[in-house]
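Re: the request from the purification team.
They wanted to know what the chain is likely to look like in 3D before they choose a buffer screen. I agreed to run a prediction and write the result into the notebook, where they can find it.
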Amino acid sequence: MPTVALAYSGGLDTSVAIRWMKERYDMDVYAVAIDLGEERDYDGIRQKALDIGAIGAEVIDAKEEFARGFIFPALKANACYEDRYPLSTSLARPLIAKLVGEVASARRPTPSPTAPPARATTRSASRSPGPASSPSSSSSPPSATGA
């Protein structure tokens, strides 16, 4: 059975996605939650993913990388949305995608026969943190998804 890594928040959408991908696409789901510093019950989130039907689940502590590689540079750049509001949630998206992709690569999920073919990417020689870093996979990326 094909396996997919899912960026899992523990919310309704990603919880439904676990069962939906299993039932509709006959895929195993490995749930990945990213701790960016929010006060949340990550043990409960991990267990919820398993209870719903994920074949595995993990929580990655990314607080340090998020602060140093994303928050501090954004503050230095005075990054604002509509020249008024400091960027926050949108800064996390690239880091979440990077970390879930790394988990997917490490677990070597199998591609779904119903999914479109993956595009090849190249590994960056330097692994600098932050939104400007290159994708970190050496061949076709494994399936990774999430909300």
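For the purification team: Residues 94 and 131 are 6 Å apart (CA to CA).
Please add any questions underneath this entry.
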